[in-house]
Amino acid sequence: MQTSDSLPRIVVLGAGFAGLTFCQKFPRNLARVTIIDRQNHHLFQPLLYQVATATLSGPDIAQPIRSILSDHPDIEVRMSEVQSIDLKAKKVILAKGEVAYDYLVIGLGGVTSYFGRPDWAQFAPGLKSLDEALALRRETLLAYERAETEADPAARDALLTTVVVGGGPTGVEMAGALAELARTVIDEDFRHIDPKKTRVLLVEAGPRLLPMFPEALSASAKLQLEKLGVEVLVASMVKDIRKGEVELPTQTIRSANIIWAAGVAANPLTRSLGIEIDRGGRIKVQPDLSLPGYPEVLAVGDVVSLVDVNGVTVPGVAPAALQMGGYAAKLIAKELKDGKGARAPFAYHDKGSLATIGRSSGIAKIGKLQFSGFFAWFAWLIIHLLFLVGFRSKVSVLTHWVYNYFTYKRGTRLVTGMDPVVAKPAPKQS
Amino acid sequence: MQTSDSLPRIVVLGAGFAGLTFCQKFPRNLARVTIIDRQNHHLFQPLLYQVATATLSGPDIAQPIRSILSDHPDIEVRMSEVQSIDLKAKKVILAKGEVAYDYLVIGLGGVTSYFGRPDWAQFAPGLKSLDEALALRRETLLAYERAETEADPAARDALLTTVVVGGGPTGVEMAGALAELARTVIDEDFRHIDPKKTRVLLVEAGPRLLPMFPEALSASAKLQLEKLGVEVLVASMVKDIRKGEVELPTQTIRSANIIWAAGVAANPLTRSLGIEIDRGGRIKVQPDLSLPGYPEVLAVGDVVSLVDVNGVTVPGVAPAALQMGGYAAKLIAKELKDGKGARAPFAYHDKGSLATIGRSSGIAKIGKLQFSGFFAWFAWLIIHLLFLVGFRSKVSVLTHWVYNYFTYKRGTRLVTGMDPVVAKPAPKQS
Question: Out of B14, B62, B132, whose CB is closest to A414?
Answer without folding.
Answer: B62
